[in-house]
Amino acid sequence: MNSRQWHIWVSIVLLIPLFIVGATAVFIAHEHALGTENVEINASWLPGMKHKHEQAEIRDWLLGSSRGDLAATKYGVFRLGETPEPLAGLPKGEFRQLLIDGNDSLWAAGKMGVWVQDAQGNARMVKDGDFHAIELAGNTISVFEKDSGVWISSDQGASWHQDHPLAAGIVALPVEYKQYTLKNLIMDMHTGKAFLGKSAEWIWIDVLGLAMVLLSITGAVVWWRNRKASV
Question: What angle do helix axes 182-191 and 201-230 make, rounded to 10 degrees?
Answer without folding.
Answer: 60
